[in-house]
Amino acid sequence: MKRYQLFSVLLLLVFNVANAQTSSVFGSITEAKTKIENTVPLVIEHLKKISEKEGDQTVLVNGTAALKKEYETLSQEFDLYKGNMGSCIVNKSKKVDKCMNYHTQYFRNTLGTYDNYITYVTKKNGYLGVEDDSVKKDFKPTEIATKIDKDFAGAVGAVRKMKGNSKLSYFEQLSSEDYKLQNFDSLVK
Predict the structure, then answer these.
(1) Rounded to whole angstroms, how far apart are CA atoms 167 and 151?
(2) What's the mean pLDDT in 42-57?
(3) What is the pLDDT of residues 161-170, one digit of tens each?
(4) Residues 99, 88: contact at Cβ < 8 Å?
(5) Radius of gyration, alpha carbons of the chain
(6) Comparing 157 with 59, which gets the higher pLDDT?
(7) Which pLDDT score is estimated for 183?
(8) Is the pLDDT of residue 48 over 80?
(9) 183, 34 contact by CB (below 8 A)
């Protein structure tokens, strides 16, 4: 009889780990990372095109410097957001929703600011209101933030089933280099 009890405990453990993996935030974080990183070469290419057309390298130099500043701000917020969301889930069991909503709103605002900058820079010939059809960006801040937020909300249930250090180790993976945005200079080709 004890073997059967041990077997059922092992099955529950496997189910909890599998459930935690299926509600994982890692897929949406990776997708967001890719979408954010893909904006850099897109904007740089547009700046090069405008710079060559105008015959003025200042457009490229100043635009790249400004893009780098915006990208690095978003990169810092991206890292903070992942850590804060993990901390909300692990440390604030009674106020987890309020904590997560606060950090998601701040992250969404940062994504919106970055999107506004990209949209402004990639206007046709630098003119406001005229979109350049050659610029095909796949960057929707609300969609990105909502998807990640839903995955973190799904992780809440999975993490509640975990015991002890497994809660912390579940979110420690998010601080690895695989889930950080690449350095701006490495994305500029």
Answers:
(1) 16
(2) 89
(3) 777 777 777 7
(4) yes
(5) 21
(6) 59
(7) 93
(8) yes
(9) no
